[in-house]
Amino acid sequence: TGSRGDQYVQQQQAANQGKLQLRLFPAGCHPQGVWMNVLKKPLDDPRVRQAVSLALDRKSSIEALYDGRAAPVLVLKAGSEYGRAESEIWDVVPGFGTGSHKQQEKDQARKLLADAGYPNGIDLPIVGRGDATGQAKLTEWAALSLKEVGIRTSVTLTPTSNDLFARMQALDYTLVAVLFCQTVADPDEIW
Questions:
Q1: For 121-155, what is each residue's pLDDT tens digit?
Q2: Tens of pLDDT along 36-88?
Q3: Does the pTM exceed 0.85?
Q4: 76 secondary structure, DSSP code
Q5: At what angle do helices 58-66 and 133-147 cross, to 10 degrees?
Q6: How many CA within 13 A on the CB side of residue 147?
Q7: What is the pLDDT of residue 76?
Q8: Cα–Cα distance between 32 and 47 in angstroms, integer?
Q9: How would residue 30 be classed by pLDDT, with cut points 50, 70 and 90?
């Protein structure tokens, strides 16, 4: 019993005592993130979209959603056969800042919002799935990340994945937090 984090700590202790050999394999559910409906104001403004992207603290999502046991994902998971090395992502790719670099990105996001006419922040609705714990946690994480730069969200959780996907298909959203399970890691299978 206990949380996944507690179980991991117990497993790590057993491994350190030589009682267990741990092999960690990357989870298959990715990519995750926030989709933006660029047909709706204010997301038709690239400065607002960039502010949203810079505000999302991807490093904290790994802690909040995966107990620190995940790798960043562009299209393919970092460290996979065809994915980029983590050193080519963290503090290199915009939006993937850590520490003081992340703070600079958040400051830049606030400036972009002000330049777009929202010096006091902005209110945006975000929708996510409510029928799966990980999906709801993703939506909560996104809302908290966005709040740090002045993007105040009103969260709606749909009762089922079918409800969420129907809204997405109809473009009935401004922001949507979404997690898909991509089960391939070979670019030939994706493209």
A1: 999 999 999 887 788 999 999 999 999 999 999 99
A2: 999 999 999 999 999 999 999 999 988 888 888 778 887 777 777 778 889 99
A3: no
A4: S
A5: 150
A6: 10
A7: 74
A8: 22
A9: low
Helix axes 133-147 and 46-55, enclosed angle (nearest 10): 110
How far, in Å, CA of 45 to CA of 113, rounded?
10
C-alpha separations of 121 from 45, 74, 148 in Å: 15, 28, 10
- The H or E element containing residue 56 is none
Buried-state track 66-85, b at ≥16 Cβ within 10 A, e below 16: beeebbbbeebbbeeeebbe
Is residue 162 within 8 A of residue 191, CB to CB? The reply is no
Q: Comparing C-alpha atoms, which of 96, 87, 91 is closest to residue 53?
A: 96
Q: In the numeric block, which tokens belong to residue 58?
A: 């991807």
SS3 191: coil
Tokens of 41: 């104001």
**Under a CB-based contact definition with an 8 Å cutoff, are residues 61 and 96 in contact?**
no
**Residue given tokens 């799966």 in the structure block:** 132
Q: Distance between alpha carbon 82 and the CA centroid of its chain, in Å?
A: 21
> Which of 149, 65, 61 is CA-nearest to residue 107?
149
Kindly state the tokens that stand for 97: 């800042």
Q: Nearest-CA neighbor of 150 among 42, 41, 55? A: 55
